[in-house]
Amino acid sequence: MENRELKKKLSAIKQLPALPRVVSHVLQLLQNPDSTAHEIGAAISQDQALASKVLRTANSAFYGFPRKITTINYAIVVLGLNNIKNIVLSSTIINGFSTSSSDGIFDRRAFWEHSLACGIFARKLSVHLGMKNSEEVFMWGLLHDFGKVVLDIYFHEEFIQAVELSRTEQTPLSTAEFEVFGFNHSGVGALLLRKWSMPLPLVKAVEYHHQPDQDHSAFRIASIVHAADYLCRRLAIGSGGDGTLPALNKKAWKLMGISADEVKQLSKEVLEEFALATEFLNEVEKAE
Q1: Is residue 239 part of a domain?
Q2: Cβ-contact 183, 6 below 8 angstroms
Q3: What global pTM score does this model have?
């Protein structure tokens, strides 16, 4: 899905952020099954701002732990490694791409609200499918569209042109991006995640969520995010930057094996959880 024009455009960005050294080390430890909680806690504690953010987010209503979590090691034990990874990665990316344009055409807060709701829906769908890595799936949904933010920051004029084109022609933003750039946000997000050595399932969920049957090996991964994105747009939680409901891939929807009544129930649960999850978003957005 990557193309030469995309690579050429992104390689020209000298300021394209790398993951901070401490964050990169923490994520490497979190992906290593031989790492101990003590090692991970010590690595997080090397960055006071990161440690503070982990503790604040761990104590938010989103996780709902009844007792106050006061140490990083305790947070790791209580929340588990996948939740800690989610906090570290989401806070780093959201803060790293927090520059907002003054024109307000692309609403960054509404964008992250949509992304957060998509993460919650993706996790719910993964549980419905009997998957064991539901917290990892949450991150697939949260970051599925983050290539849009990259485009908004580094190619602002062209991106706004794509946003306005999608609204004028009532076409999905991904389609308008292809018209303007020759590629879309899913390719941008996947390329950057690869650069950061992120887990392959996350990369493929981001890369193929608009076309889940384009890569057979990624079909289940991408289908979950595709369906979650569609359902979130139906609920109109936040904004992906356009107002067009994307076409639903029938094969991906069939894979979900979900009835109309189950969709209604899951939607109710997502809305309830999203009300608590806004505190999660508030915490990870805070700059130190």
Answers
A1: yes
A2: yes
A3: 0.88
Residue 148 lies in a domain: yes
195 in a structural domain: yes
- What are 98-105's contacts with CB under 8 Å, separation 24+? 98/285, 98/287, 99/153, 101/152, 101/156, 101/160, 103/160, 105/160, 105/163, 105/164
- Would you say residue 16 lies in a domain? no
Q: State the pLDDT at residue 103.
A: 73
Q: 19-25: list long-range contacts, CB under 8 Å, 24+ apart.
A: 19/92, 19/196, 20/47, 20/92, 22/46, 22/47, 22/50, 23/47, 23/50, 23/88, 23/89, 23/92, 24/196, 24/197
Per the structure, the complete domain to which residue 169 belongs is given by 101-257
Range name among 88-97, 160-169, 255-264 with the lowest pLDDT average: 88-97
CATH number of the domain at 155, please: 1.10.3210.10
> What's the domain count of the chain?
1
pLDDT at 1 over 60: no
